[in-house]
Amino acid sequence: MVRAIKGTLVECEPSIKSIIISIDSVNNEYIIEDLDENHLVVKDNMVKQLKIELEKRLKENVPEVDDDSDSDQDVNK
Fold first, then answer.
1. Residue 44 in domain
2. CB of 40 within 8 A of CB of 46?
3. 22 to each of 3, 15, 68, how far by Cα in Å?
């Protein structure tokens, strides 16, 4: 008997794709197919959870930009 899995095509930069693959490597619960350097097919029912996990990883690895930067305030002095 043939089984089908509903999926969502994800297009992203290779750096983001590598993070998604890293997240999936723990339990193999997100990715159905790795198509090329910018595209993945992800289980449709796991897209929301994958976005949450990706946001967590990005917050851990990317520093936040401080809006109160002194470099912009001293321009007219």
1. yes
2. no
3. 26, 11, 34
Rounded CA gap, 73 and 53, in Å? 36
User: What CATH number is associated with residue 48?
Assistant: 3.30.70.1220
Number of domains in the chain: 1
Residues 12, 14, 15, 16, CA torsion sign: positive
DSSP 3-40: ----EEEEE--HHHHHHHHHHHTTT--SEEEEEETTEE
pLDDT digit string, tens, across residues 35-56: 999 999 999 999 999 999 999 9
Mean pLDDT of 1-18: 94
Helix, strand, or coil (residue 23): helix
- Structural domain includes residue 36: yes
Assess contact for 41 and 32: CB atoms under 8 A.
yes
